[in-house]
Amino acid sequence: MTDVREFLESAARSASAHLGGLDERPVWQRVPAGVAEGLVGQELPETGADPAALLGDIERRVLAYPMGNGHPAFFGWVNAAPHPAGIAGALLAAAVNPSSAGGDHADVYLERGVVRWIAELVGFPHETGAGLLTSGASMATIVAVGAARQRALLATGWDVRERGLSGAPRLTAYATAEVHSCVGKAIELLGIGRANLRVVADDGAGHLDTAALREAIAADREAGALPFLAVGSAGTVTTGAVDPLREIAAVCAESGIWFHVDGAYGAFGVLDPAIADRYAGMELADSVALDPHKWLQVPAGVGCLLVRDRVQLRATYSLVPAYLRDDSADELGWYSEYGIEQTRPFRALPVWAALAARGRSGVAADIAACTSAARRLDELVAKDPDFELAADTEVSIVAFRFSPAGIDDAEADRITRDLAVRIQQRGRVFITDSLYRGRPVLRACLINPAVGEAELLLLLEEAREAAAELRGTE
Ligand SMILES: Cc1ncc(COP(=O)(O)O)c(C=O)c1O
């Protein structure tokens, strides 16, 4: 690379041209077969490309076929439009390229500060070192469940780190059917066994029934198991339901089990005063998983785990090989002693930049813009003769289905099931679907503050036209 400056400036121009042109292009389109095959099957070049040709290739074959989540008419899954400051932070983090495993360099200290900021944003008590950035909430959940497992077994005299699980007391965990699949994955991966993740009844609207939780814990104890973990959702992925966190915390405290909150999608909703009271009790958890790469609009690859007691993480994960010299400036040790990764990317800088560029009030305003757009969409759906709400809109996900007068549930379900893909193929808005209480639903996830009335109206118009195509009545 001859001229680094010219090259990086050109790359920055490509990035801003990409972002600037997003709403003139389809929100999403299929990658043409030739392009996809070319990307998969391309030959490893023997010699290096000219920098301008390299950037041109990225623009033509990669930037031209995005997932769509930067676009204001993207309502799919839980994927954010990246904040410009977050993009700049990601670029500069890559330029420095430390391993944030630990040591005496700025990225390590910045991560401590940023984790504290995240704790402050959601009102979780924090002592320095009680949390870390991860690749996402799935990884944060594995780290939390691993610590909960270690604590529970150690209390019975069983050191799982030393002895493994064979012959250990049988652990049981608790959550509703609406809990995110990453919890099941963590339970599987940590050798606890999916059958030991008890599905606790809910109140009919996706909120964990704490009486049922109490009973399930008592029944398992009676049967000789070791209940060790309950998970509450601060915003489920399908409907955004927030579990009764304070009540779950009380059951966990009385039962002596670890209380984990999955706030990956929804925890930052607490910043909107209109819905903040739904989150009461989140601050009582032993751990909270959150995702800066969702609602905080940090470029993908950044989750966060907050824990009440940092000692629990270090006791679970600290395994320091001889080749690593502990040159940290404080007694907290390395981040790699608090989680699973050894080499860790500089995640703190994009998070810091995306927060510092807006400040607390700016972030809160962005969150409130999304929740209020969701309430508006809820209103539009409620009065639309072609659609019905499938659940209450609690945070910023609106779950709804096609249900015009004169069609039965089976036909409504058939159309709703195929609707998301048909809408996506039309290229003007992007939405995804799920199953809720056994029935297909469209779920519009609003985490982009740029979404306005025009996009909401467009979503319903596109859904109506796509449904007409599916029914053959267009
Ligand atoms: C509620 C919830 N929990 C956990 C996750 C997993 O997060 P990640 O994709 O960052 O691993 C998601 C992802 O959408 C989610 O919505």
Automatic annotation (TrEMBL):
The modification N6-(pyridoxal phosphate)lysine is found at K294. Keywords: Aminotransferase, Decarboxylase, Lyase, Pyridoxal phosphate, Transferase. GO terms for biological process: amino acid metabolic process; carboxylic acid metabolic process. Its cofactor is pyridoxal 5'-phosphate. Pfam families: Pyridoxal_deC (PF00282). The keyword Lyase applies. Belongs to the group II decarboxylase family. This is Aminotransferase class V-fold PLP-dependent enzyme.
